[in-house]
Amino acid sequence: MENSFKEVEWSAEKISKFWDFIGSNTSSKDHYFSKMMGDGIINKARKSVPLKGKFLDMGCGPGFFTEHLLNAGIDFIAMDSSPDSITKLQERYPSVDSKVGSLDSIPTDDDCFDGIFLIEVMEHLGNDYLQVVLKELKRVIKKNGYLIATVPFAEDLRANHVVCPECDHHFHRMQHLQSYTEQKMSTLISNAGFEPVLVKALNFKDYKNKSINKFIRLAKKLPLGLDQSTPHLLTIARHP
Question: What is the CATH number of domain 2-238?
Answer without folding.
Answer: 3.40.50.150
